[in-house]
Request: fold
Amino acid sequence: MGTKGYPEEFDIQKYLLVLKRRWPIIAGVLLATCGLSSIAVFLQKPEYQASGMLLFKSDRTSSLTKVGEKIGDLESVMREGNPLQTQAVILKSKPILKQVIDTLGLTDKKGNLLAPDSLKINVKPTVGTDILEVSYISDKPELAASVVNQVMRFYLINNVQSNRSEVFAAGEFIEKQLPYSRRELERAAEALRQFKIRYKIIELPQEANAAIENIAKIDEEINHTRAALADVTAQEAQVRSQLNLAGEQTVEITSLSQIPGVQEVLSEMQKVQSQLATARARYTESHPSVAFLKDQEATLNSLLQQRIEQILGAKGKKQILGDQQNVSPSKLQMGDLKKNLAAQYAQLQAQRQGFSSRIQALSNLRVTFKQKLDLLPNYEKKQGDLDRQLAVAQKNYENLVTRLQDIQVAERQTTGNAKVIEPASVPKKPILSKTTLILVGGSVFVGLVLGVSSAFFVDLIDSSLKTLKEAESFFGYKILGLIPKFESKISTLTKLMGDSVSPRIIVATYPRTVIHEAFGMLHANLKFISHKKVRTIVVTSSVAGEGKSEVSANLAAVLAQGGSRVLLVDADMYQPSQHYLWGLINSVGLSNVIVGQNEFSNTVQVFTNNLSVLTAGVQPPNPHALIDSERMNSLIEIFSDSFDYIVFDTPPLVHTADAAVLGKMVDGVLLVVRPGIVDSASATTAKSLLERSEANILGIIANAVNVKKKLNSYCYGSKERVSQDFIKTEIRNKQWVYK
Reply:
């Protein structure tokens, strides 16, 4: 299964491989840096550290007297802050350091007093305690102890002075505030007094209760009066109905009936009316006697109305008569019964008016009490505000007086809240200074950084293709085979094959090895790369030294071991090597067959039943002309009739185009790549030549790669034998490199 989805893993492996390849550079730079730092450490002067301890505690005297308990307490404004850290900063403050420098006369190399910043005092709290550790480093042990002791001494002096200054400052502040507080108290008391005088208030709760009780009594009195009024009104209506007079006429008519002048005229008019009635009985209406009596009646009636108007007035008369012009004489004459009823009616009417007036007066009084009761909450709120202002002013004044008394007592008992529990002693042994630690640690760090940087720089300027992944990415061809790096064991091979065959042909000499499995996988991959069977194969490389001849020989051997008839042709006429590998004589070969000097059947050398080798032959003056000829093309067809596979070992692509030319005549080209040997320029030339030749590039064979396991034996069943599955995995990883 591929690893395409994990490019970051590839990058990490790439960097690790760079470090692995260039580790001597890293080690050299690191050793050089460490050596220089060692010399610098050796030249350093020894340094001594003296330390003392300060204990921070509360003032016991204040806690016993309960006065000034909080003065000098260690508190932090920030919730997460540590008060001891604040005191540590005070210990290192410039005023204290300046006092220490002046006391001890500390000077620099020029004889000037040291600046406070140059006196490096270290102060740190002890975890879980209220203790600060004060330390100082110097090349003089006595000076280190003196500096620490003086720092702690001046801190204690300043601490006591600071606590006392806080007390004095608080006392002065309270003394200034007392007159203002007293005036505020007097102002609040006077405002409350003026309020009570203005609104005539003695005690608001009692006045509210009294107002409520008065309203209740008034409501009760109004109810009783209304009941009496209703009774009188009923009696008045009954009497009025008996008199058959309107309510407003009853009294007036009753009074008129008792006036002599009115009654005299009324009597005269009644006499005339009697005479008129008699005359009418005797005479007609036009008779002078009747007319005289009518005139006399009218005159008396007019006189009666005048006297009524004189007595009642025009307004009173109009109230009695209403829309009528004259008062009926019959209403002016009453009997004793009606007179009594009229008197009773007048009395009831007076009672009714009295009850109505009483109800009105009580209602007005109730409204007065209700208005006062409604205003009481406002008065109560206002008085409450004034009471609270007075209470606050009085409390503030009392607190200021109390605090002033406490401060006056605290001024006599204020002490410091820290003490020395361990003075600094003269150190006997030097310490490992920070400078030394920085030099050692820095040298290691800088050495590693410089070493790694140098390694990557050297690797960057190295133009060789260092890994299989780089080679595959550069050429753009598939990886068909991966041949592990191995060392030959001549003793074992000699016993099997004698001295003729080179130990580098590991497949032919002893086939049950990891190398055999690698070439077996190459054989299998060749079967699956195309729908057409690949029979004629050119094996080449970019430059010399990549192992193309060994790969050609071992590939031919593994094909022959599979039962196929294989012809291995050494087409490298510049530096032929197949006759060395197989222990053959190169007196005649491919060059002789091409020019027709020898027949192929007499030139080919049979190595096994399935494997035959055609060496390069005599080196011609122009090998390229022989390769790029019709005779070579026809020979390939002849070879194909007799063999199942023909493997051509050709020259490197950088020096000649033989491999590219021959590649167009065969089924495909295998490019042998050995990372670490071929450089990018040579690889570019080889790739360009292959692309221009339009040959069928079958893929890449990675040769002599380090599979990350040391192969101790090539014997079958070795504990560290690499299986085909492992080789498949390593091909996918594409990160094998040369050591």
Notes: Confidence is low (pLDDT under 50) at residues 1-10, 60-69, 490-498, 709-739. The chain has 25 helices and twelve strands. The CA atoms of residues 181 and 397 lie 5 Å apart.
